[in-house]
Predict the 3D structure of the following.
Amino acid sequence: MYRTVALIARMLRQCVQLQSLASSGPILTSNRAPLSTSNRSNTANIEDGPDLGDFIQGSITKGDTWANYKHKLKREPGENERLRLPPWLKTEIPRGQNYSRLKESLRSKKLYTVCEEARCPNMSTCWGGGEDHVATATIMVLGDTCTRACRFCSIKTSRKPPPPDPNEPVNTAVAVCDWGIDYVVLTSVDRDDLPDGGAAHFAQTVTEIKRIKPNLLVECLTGDFGGDLEGVKTVAASGLDVYAHNIEVVEYVHPDKFKQWEEYGNSLGFVYTASGPLVRSSYKAGEYFVKKYLNRRKQEKLKQQQQYVSSLLSTRTT
């Protein structure tokens, strides 16, 4: 917090200096009292940091890739030093027409997204859309309060959250189908307080979506249901198109290894493997790729059915 405020203060001072130079007047100098010894090191760090010109030119992280990054990426036990966010983990501030449209729709329908509740760094990518993927939001059902308290997550927690809204499946289906999108991701908080972990509520949401818009592709990113496979079966039989589940990773992975894991995943036979520093729950949903893959598979199945019907007709004719 101190570094942020100090950096803003320095930028403001430079703006004053630039304005003074433009008017051919004297450069303003500070008449503040001498700094104490404890503050001198902080002041020196500020003076050596990026200036206003760096922000204007966008050269703060130029050449600062993972291959030549020299700063520490991991704190050892007992260390209190604050680590800097490496450049490959920095993302753009969410903005754009699709982002604004999705946010307004969510607020009007009183729906929650894991994107917002968990402060996902990929909102600008997933919500903004683009040439290579459609705008997608991950809807969070079963409320906005989780029964678990994972330290890496920003979603609020409680041992006894409010009961699920019985109207949520219908409201979610109406809102999603009203967006005009063709791919949606459903996820949820963990509800260990419910006998089935919320599986029936999850499945009902999918059923309602398919009832209103059968061609809408639905991906369900579920929790572990406390290890109960009956919950998995309930959701899997709901009519979804993609069943997804996160694999928890504890060990720190350096960026140069993500490509290796992608190749390994593909070698196991997975149709699509998303591997990278910013990959989170359904990162970009793989929606463009999965959409093309599922549509192609449906077309092939339809073609086989047509060929089968044609063969039956020809057999009867002969």
In short: The chain has eleven helices and five strands. The longest strand covers residues 183-188.
